[in-house]
Amino acid sequence: MTTENQLVVENASVSFSGFRAVSDLCLKVRAGELRCLIGPNGAGKTTALDLICGKTRLSGGEIVFKGKPIHRLSEHAIARAGIGRKFQVPSVFRALSVRDNLHIGHSRKPGVLANLATFGQSGDTEDIERLAELVGLEDELDTPAAHLSHGQTQWLEIALILAQDPSLILMDEPTAGMTAQETKKTAQLFTRLGGRHTLIVVEHDMGFVRDIAQTISVMHQGKLLAEGSITDIESNQAVRDAYLGSGGIGHA
Ligand SMILES: Nc1ncnc2c1ncn2[C@@H]1O[C@H](COP(=O)(O)OP(=O)(O)OP(=O)(O)O)[C@@H](O)[C@H]1O
């Protein structure tokens, strides 16, 4: 893992009808890092991901990815630059098998024409089997996506993002609705992805955060409130105060 900052968010701000949802947010994330972004409801976490992937435009500040400003690029250009986003609601093709979903995800890579020309060839099949194995769906390749469990559907969506080979992947509450066992498997998957991909994971499940986190950034009222290890964060009085009224940090 390098120590280079792959992503630098500098004083990022955005307002909705005069309400500052993200306010002078600063984040630095190293290449290959697995960063957790936590904070009470309404802290601005999803909006921060929206700003990074270009879904929402900054009203102030800048976002630099691999040394280049990206905040004026289109969402599509940001994706092409190597930033993938997993939304809360999966967008898999439910009528198609896992294999066919992965074929489509794989052929949507940059240079799609070249991919279509080689569609179905052995390299393609190997990539698809490798992706399925990576996310634990190697036994479900012929299963229609509609028959997958909730957790398996999320993993398929993650595999579709991985098929694009983004350097940075933004995940919004990936374990929401998962069983304890699925959450555990997702933690193992994310740990495997670290190093090769940079991950920013917005998560409320502190058990999951504890399992995967290296550095945790805590947002509150649109700002960065604290940053550090799980021990630093759990013992930070300002963080505890921010979570008052939402049942405490462990119940966020
Ligand atoms: N498009 C929008 N228009 C108006 N207000 C918005 C919009 N998007 C977000 N907000 C507001 O900005 C604030 C931050 O929302 P955001 O969804 O980023 O928080 P969050 O930390 O992800 O919360 P949660 O953990 O509940 O998902 C909230 O008060 C929300 O209502």
TrEMBL record:
InterPro entries in the cross-refs: AAA+_ATPase, ABC_AA/LPS_Transport, ABC_transporter-like_ATP-bd, ABC_transptr_urea_ATP-bd_UrtD, P-loop_NTPase
Example GO molecular function: ATP binding
UniProt keyword RNA-binding, yes or no: no
Pfam families from the UniProt entry: ABC_tran
Annotated ABC transporter domain residues: 7-246
Swiss-Prot/TrEMBL keywords: ATP-binding, Nucleotide-binding, Transport
Name of the protein in question: Urea ABC transporter ATP-binding protein UrtD
